[in-house]
Amino acid sequence: MYQGCYGICTSPSVLTALSVAINQVFMNIISNAIDALSNYNSQRPSAEIYLNLNRIWITTEIIGANCVIRIADNGSGMTEEVKKRLFDPFFITKAVGKGTGLGLSISYQIIVEKHGGTLKCLSEIGQGTEFLIEIPLDFNKEITSSKQSTGVWTKSSGSEKIT
């Protein structure tokens, strides 16, 4: 759960998330980004790699009634055809034996079905890829002790703590 206000939020809010499931989403997206960057590097000369180092950015913020997590990379990006099938079960762009094609499908189910949020992919060829995760906050829920499978995130006076 996340407690606190950011931007125009006027009351404390709570983000209730299944921490193990959310961690799986993060690991799936970050692992795919690492693989995509490695594949991108195999197609680039060393000098270009040195001048444009691989990067993965992770940012979080509260926008309106949502906790927004962005995971982006500066890789080669994706075609429209790939983006259309990205969350389909068993869809894979990696070499045979390098994945199951289930990671993003499962991630989509976790965010959309279990947390009532959205999971979007923004990508253009040559521009990298960004995954946008939005999970609704609960402005009416009081913070109580966490259940075993729920992570509790709190923020007060500028410091963050996971309990």
From TrEMBL:
Assigned keywords, A-Z: ATP-binding, Kinase, Nucleotide-binding, Transferase, Two-component regulatory system
Alphabetical list of InterPro entries matching this protein: HATPase_C_sf (IPR036890), HATPase_dom (IPR003594), His_kinase_dom (IPR005467), Sig_transdc_His_kin-like_C (IPR004358)
EC annotation from Swiss-Prot or TrEMBL: 2.7.13.3
Pfam family, one: HATPase_c
Domain Histidine kinase: start-end pairs: 22-139
Family annotation (SUPFAM superfamilies): ATPase domain of HSP90 chaperone/DNA topoisomerase II/histidine kinase
Catalyzed chemical reaction(s): ATP + protein L-histidine = ADP + protein N-phospho-L-histidine
Enzyme class label: transferase
Descriptive protein name: histidine kinase
Organism: Nostoc flagelliforme FACHB-838
